Structure formats: C-alpha cells, structure tokens
Amino acid sequence: MLYLDPPAVPWRGRLWSHLVSDVSYAELHAFAEALGLPRRGFDRDHYDLPADRVPMAVWLGARLVPSREIVRLLRAADLRRPKPRAVPAPGGPVTPRGPGISAGSRVPG
Asked: Is residue 105 part of a domain?
C-alpha cells in the first residue's frame, strides 16, 4: 500500500508531502513513475511529492495519513532508512550534538 502525508514541508516556494510504501521500494518507484516523479525525488526511503500532485496520488490509490504515521509505517515494514549520523574525522573538530543551548547557558564570546 502507498501512503502520503499532507503537504506541509516548505521548499522552493512550494509545499511538499512524503510518499512511502509499506510493501517495497519497487512498489514505491513504480507508483512514483506513474505519477511522473523524477527518480531524483527519492530520498532514502520516500519520495518528496509536491502539493499539486497529491490529488492525483490519492486518485491512483495512495492513502493520506498524518505525518507521524509515515515513519511508523516505514519502521513497521522495516523500510526506514534514517539519515546517517555525521562522524567527525580522527583529529578533526567535534561538534557537540544535543538539544542545543539551554536557558541560562552562557555563550563564550
């Protein structure tokens, strides 16, 4: 089955949705091709779908679900491919990872 979330991600003056399959990447690529999406729109485990193509995707059978459901569906199908975490080169600068600067923190300067 194919799923997409409501268009909510702004980029280049448009809103975008995420299109995923809970069956296989082959199913996802075939559906994207039917929609006329370029392969470059594939990002690890989903296609970025412009808002103007959402009605056609739904008409072709994709189900509209909340954004949270997209990740849950990918994980349940073992198709989730998260972005790799950056690993600093040996001897290179280390950028602290975490929630950011907390209230009351002092920034050196």
From this structure: no
Task: Give pTM, 2 decimals.
Answer: 0.73
Q: Per-block average pLDDT, block size 10, for the chain (109 residues)?
A: 95 94 96 94 93 97 96 90 71 52 42
Task: Note whether residue 66 is domain-resident.
Answer: yes
Residues contacting residue 74 through CB under 8 Å, at least 6 positions apart: 20, 22, 45, 46, 80
Q: Is residue 15 part of a domain?
A: yes
Q: Residue 63's CB: how many other CB atoms inside 10 A? A: 13
Write out the residue range of the structural domain in which residue 39 sits.
2-76
DSSP state of 51: G
Burial-class residue 16 by CB neighbours within 10 Å (0-12, 13-18, 19+). Answer: buried
Considering the domain boundaries, does residue 95 fall inside one? Answer: no
Q: Identify which of 94, 72, 78 has the alpha carbon closest to the alpha carbon of residue 23.
A: 78
The structural domain count of the chain equals 1
Question: For residues 82 and 75, is the Cβ–Cβ distance under 8 A?
Answer: no
